[in-house]
Description:
Elements: H1 8-17, E1 24-27, E2 41-45, E3 48-49, E4 55-68, E5 70-73, E6 81-94, E7 99-101, E8 120-132, E9 135-137, E10 144-147, E11 150-155, E12 158-160, H2 164-167, E13 175-178, E14 180-186, E15 189-191, E16 197-199, E17 202-208, E18 211-213, E19 218-223, E20 230-237, E21 240-252, E22 259-266, E23 269-279, E24 284-286
Parallel strand pairs: 1-2, 2-4, 3-5, 4-6, 5-7, 6-8, 7-9, 8-10, 8-11, 9-12, 10-13, 11-14, 12-15, 13-16, 14-17, 15-18, 16-19, 17-20, 18-21, 19-21, 20-22, 21-23
Antiparallel strand pairs: 23-24
GO molecular function: polygalacturonase activity
EC number: 3.2.1.15
Family: Belongs to the glycosyl hydrolase 28 family.
Amino acid sequence: xxxxxxxxxxxLLMISSGVSWASNHVIRSIEDVEGxxxxxxxxxxxxxxxxxxSLRLLGLRNAVVTFEGxxxxxxxxxxxxxxxFKGDNVTVTGTPGHLIHGGGERWWDGYGVLGGPKPKFFEVxxxxxxxxxxxxxxxxxxxxxxxxxxxxxxxxxxVDSSEGDWKGAKRTDGFxxxxxxxxxxxxxxxxxxxxxxxxxxxxxxxxENNYCxxxxxxxxxxxxxxxxxxxxxxxxxxxxxxxSFNGVRVKTVKNAVGQSQQRHIRRHYSGKHHWLWRHDGRxxxxxxxxx
Length: 291
């Protein structure tokens, strides 16, 4: 389904008069994805993504992408991404009552990466953009991977993989950040079995006013063993971490090179095991202080 850009005469009139044009595109089947990146208003409506296929919206520019209804995915043991968005000046949101259901219970086998192949859920490579108001359920593995992004704000996201507590889910991270800068994640709610957020590499990152339950808390790292191994200027504040194995931890890879500095950790509630740990790939250090 291509952009419905109206009559040619009207379009020419709008261009000549300097009026901006907002084209609309509705995706109800995977075939409708073609041409969507040329439009500025994209609605993903009650879509079923076939097994082994990614919903990929690449080359987005000055666009609003809205999820509505229920989005589902076919089952296949593979290691791709169920969704990937890439672009500049993009807004991603959802209508009231929508649900993006990953169907992760079909992949959960109690072994995580040591078991059968599992796709990551949603990778974003977005600049000067915002993601807000999404409702996500039962991700096979990592929920939202922020990769090579800048000036991105993520807010009011609910990731609920709590069923995995008794269905064998592992590695269901809420947010992972790689090689990104100026990223803020705030007012989100994550119920999972692994890191609420894991900062692998990046600079000028903020994680604030979030609720994390059931997993491993907030992690800086693991740092080391990747192409980029620098984490700088990270602010973590005013988060609630409950029913989790850790509060906040810094993880490094044994015998690898990396750098983690200017971490500011403020005003948290953490309930279960450990408040602040440093993990250096060999042993854990309870009570380690943040730099």
